[in-house]
TrEMBL record:
It comes from Amphiprion percula. GO terms for molecular function: nucleic acid binding. This is Tc1-like transposase DDE domain-containing protein.
Length: 89
């Protein structure tokens, strides 16, 4: 059922919380690794990003997903404030 009466409970959106999305941690890993390279153009940047993406292991992905309970606890302790993404690695 679709309810459109502009009531806050029908129009509110969940807060953006990138620190609770494991993909953001993967991008942080890639960004940190790519920043060590001196790329000269967009094509080199794309190639380095692809190379780093291809080197992400299933174990890294499992670790990022597996530590979600710890992230949730940290977010609750922070009263919803943004978490330092580095502390979750």
């Amino acid at each position: 059922m679709f309810q459109q009466d502009n009531s806050l409970c029908h129009t509110s959106r969940p807060a953006q919380s990138p620190d609770m999305r494991p993909i953001e941690n993967l991008w942080w890993i890639i960004k940190r690794s790519v920043s060590k390279h001196k790329v000269k153009n967009l094509e080199e940047l794309k190639a380095v990003i692809q190379e780093k993406w291809d080197k992400i292991t299933p174990q890294q992905c499992e670790m990022l997903v597996g530590n979600m309970p710890a992230r949730i606890r940290a977010l609750l302790r922070a009263n919803g404030r943004k978490l330092n993404i580095n502390m979750m690695m």
